[in-house]
Amino acid sequence: MSHPIVTSLYQQTTLPVIAAPMFIVSGPELVVAQCASGIVGSMPALNARPQSQLAEWLAQIEETLIALRNQDPSAVISPYAINHIIHASNKRLDADLEVCARFKVPYIISSLRAPDDVVKTIHGWGGKVFHDVTTLRHAEKALEAGVDGLILVCAGAGGHAGTVSPFALLNEVRRFFDGPVTLAGAITHGHDVLAALAMGADFAYMGTRFIASEEARAIADHKQMILDARSSDIVYTPYFSGIPANYLRASITAAGYDPDDLPKQKREIDAGTNDEAKAWRDVWSAGQGAGSIQAVLPTSRIVQELRDEYHARAALLSEAIPALAGIS
To answer: Of 119, 123, 161, 206, which residue is most buried, by most CB within 10 angstroms?
Structure first.
């Protein structure tokens, strides 16, 4: 039997996908487009600068989604999520959480540290907490903190990714957690989404595919670099943000660094500061799935293509599996 949160989200989506919140790239326009297309949209709270802009953006998202639902009550308009960096260096966290409480944001994606002291606050307004993890120990600590779901950010994912195979981490997590699990790591196409579910995840987590969308706030050169990239053009390094992350090789070169000879030490940067913003503005993130993205498209078209690919592969498997089962 499905977990209640999973069942609820399946009823509110047309594809089991949660869009990853992307620093600088995700804004209210992209969130609305994702939700209107039938997937869970998201953005980082830190993208709203100054902090007072967060309330304006949440009002924009809420009002637009309500209007879309009223315009066509039969349409599937999905809920949205806001990402928070749970770290002492994020001086905005309390203020951002207060804004989210005011708007009763339905889903919170927490990152970088187990949200021990904020889960109760989020549950207080009825929100659910999904936490980013890259290792089994991170997953255990997040569950100890009381989160509702886990997002396994595995090898090949954009941004602050891990190095563990999705097969390994998902199987280990499922040994002790049967709640909502979202899988990240070079998921770019609809058949990838189906594969994530076949492996035992409930949702796929997709970010890089939406950098190459018309609604993304990434500049044109960043989007073009996604189209030009191959998986071998993704560089994993802790240097720019202080935490290991995946970046586009060409952007590292353009910023004046040698991607093959980056300093080994971490450059410590506080979350929510101008230095952090500059790091992500000048050196662009992407996952290994960039190698199969071929065009910048409207979000609605991207999601429709994902749905078509998902159902086409599901139909193919429905024919193939009975035949395979008959092989002695």
So the answer is: 206
Q: Which residue has the higher pLDDT, 265 or 87?
A: 87
Tell me the pLDDT tens digit for each residue of 158-169.
999 999 999 999
3-state secondary structure the chain: CCCHHHHHHHHCCCCCEEECCCCCCCCHHHHHHHHHCCCEEEEEHHHCCCCCHHHHHHHHHHHHHHHHHHHCCCCCCCCEEEEEECCCCCCCHHHHHHHHHHHCCCEEEEECCCCCCCHHHHHHCCCEEEEEECCHHHHHHHHHCCCCEEEEECCCCCECCCCCCHHHHHHHHCCCCCCCEEEECCCCCHHHHHHHHHHCCCEEEECHHHHCECCCCCCHHHHHHHHHCCHHHEEEECCCCCCCEEEEHHHHHHCCCCCCCCCCCCCCCCCCCHHHHHHHHHCCECCHHHHHCCCCECHHHHHHHHHHHHHHHHHHHHHHHHHHHCCC
Q: What are phi and psi of 133, to 5 degrees?
A: -135, 150
Task: Kindly report, residue by residue over 83-138, the tens digit of the pLDDT.
Answer: 999 988 899 999 999 999 999 999 999 998 888 889 999 999 999 999 999 999 99
What is the average pLDDT score of the chain?
92
What predicted TM-score, i.e. pTM, was given to this entire model? 0.93
